[in-house]
C-alpha cells in the first residue's frame, strides 16, 4: 500500500445564512462529516457540481478555511491543532494552483520575479535566480520570456507561471483548484500533461478539483465524488467510470457529452431508467465497499 500523506478525519464546515434582520435562517453544510485519505505520489480527483463543497474541502486541507469539527493530518501531524507559527513549517510543503492565473499573479512583477518571490525567503539571490530560471525552462519558457509581465502572456502561459511558482519551493502536496477551467480547450491538455510530467519528475501528490470529468479521468488515480458536502463515492478512476454505484455519480456521468448521437440516446435512456428516485442523503449513512477500494454511501 502507498504511504498516506494526508488524512482528513470527520471534518465539518457549516456556514450560517442570515435574513435581513441578522437572524440565522438556515445552515449551509459545505463540508458535512467528510473523511478521506490522500496517498503519496497519487492524484486524487475531486468532482461534483458547483456548491458541492469541493473548493471548501481543498482550502481546508491547506488551512485556508477554518473547520468546525474534525482534524486534518499531514504526515501524522494534526494541522488543525497547531498554532499559526507552528503551521508554517508544514505548510511550506503544501502549495496551490489557482483557477484564474491572471488574478493570482501580481501584474507589476515579471515572470522571473514572480517565481523568485518565494525563493528569496529561503536562498540567496544567486541560487534563487538559478532555481527560478530552471523551473521556468521546465514549464516551457525561453529566456526572452523571463522579463515579460503577466498581461503579455496568454492564459495558458500565465497558468504555467502559476505552476512554476507552486513547484519551485519543492513541495510534496499541491492543491489543483480548477486549474484548467479558465483556459481554452486546446491548451487544457497541454497543462494537464505538464502537471503529469512534473508529478513523475518531482514525486508530487495532487488533489485535483475540476468539473471536467474527461480531464479528471485522464489525470486521476482515484476519484472522490462530492454532493451537498458529503463524499458519496470513492474509488479507482476506471472503476468509477465503468461501474458507478451512487445515483449522483450516475447523474454526473450522464451529463458528459457523447459524440455519437446513437450512443448518447442509449446512455440517456439507461440513465433515466436507473434514476427513478430522488437522492436523500439523510437516509444514506453507511459507507460500503462494493469492490476492492471502491466505496459508496448507502442506506443502512
TrEMBL record:
Which Gene Ontology MF annotations are present? Answer: ATP binding
SMART domains registered for this protein in UniProt: AAA (SM00382)
Kindly name one Pfam family recorded for this protein. Answer: ABC_tran
According to the entry, every stretch annotated as the ABC transporter domain falls at 6-253
Q: Which domain of life is it from?
A: Bacteria
- For this UniProt record, give its keywords in alphabetical order, as a comma-separated list: ATP-binding, Nucleotide-binding, Peptide transport, Protein transport, Transport
Task: Cite the Gene3D superfamilies for this sequence.
Answer: P-loop containing nucleotide triphosphate hydrolases (3.40.50.300)
Name the family the entry cites.
Belongs to the ABC transporter superfamily.
Mind telling me what this protein is named? ABC transporter ATP-binding protein
Amino acid at each position: 500500500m502507498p504511504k498516506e500523506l494526508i488524512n482528513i478525519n470527520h471534518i465539518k464546515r457549516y456556514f450560517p445564512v442570515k435574513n435581513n434582520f441578522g437572524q440565522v435562517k438556515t445552515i449551509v453544510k459545505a463540508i458535512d462529516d467528510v473523511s478521506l485519505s490522500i496517498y503519496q505520489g497519487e492524484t486524487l480527483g475531486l468532482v461534483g457540481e458547483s456548491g458541492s463543497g469541493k473548493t471548501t474541502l481543498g482550502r481546508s486541507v491547506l488551512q485556508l478555511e477554518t473547520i468546525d469539527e474534525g482534524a486534518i493530518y499531514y504526515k501524522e501531524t494534526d494541522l488543525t491543532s497547531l498554532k499559526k507559527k507552528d503551521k508554517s513549517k508544514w505548510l511550506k510543503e503544501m502549495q496551490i494552483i489557482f483557477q484564474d492565473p491572471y488574478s493570482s499573479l501580481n501584474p507589476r512583477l515579471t515572470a522571473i520575479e514572480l517565481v523568485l518571490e518565494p525563493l528569496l525567503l529561503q536562498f540567496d539571490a544567486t541560487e534563487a535566480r538559478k532555481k527560478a530560471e530552471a523551473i521556468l525552462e521546465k514549464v516551457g519558457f525561453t529566456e526572452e520570456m523571463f522579463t515579460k509581465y503577466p498581461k503579455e502572456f496568454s492564459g495558458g502561459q500565465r497558468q504555467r507561471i502559476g505552476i512554476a511558482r507552486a513547484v519551485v519551493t519543492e513541495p510534496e502536496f499541491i492543491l489543483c483548484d480548477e486549474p484548467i477551467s479558465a483556459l481554452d480547450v486546446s491548451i487544457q491538455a497541454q497543462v494537464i500533461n505538464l502537471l503529469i510530467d512534473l508529478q513523475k519528475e518531482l514525486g508530487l501528490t495532487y488533489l485535483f478539483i475540476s468539473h471536467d470529468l474527461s480531464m479528471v479521468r485522464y489525470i486521476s488515480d482515484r476519484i472522490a465524488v462530492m454532493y451537498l458536502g458529503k463524499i458519496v463515492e470513492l474509488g479507482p478512476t476506471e472503476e468509477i467510470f465503468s461501474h458507478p454505484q451512487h445515483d449522483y455519480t450516475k447523474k454526473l456521468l450522464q451529463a458528459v457529452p457523447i459524440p455519437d448521437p446513437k450512443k448518447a440516446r442509449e446512455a440517456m435512456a439507461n440513465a433515466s431508467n436507473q434514476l427513478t428516485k430522488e437522492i436523500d442523503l439523510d437516509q444514506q449513512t453507511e459507507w460500503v465497499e462494493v469492490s476492492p477500494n471502491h466505496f459508496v454511501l448507502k442506506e443502512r
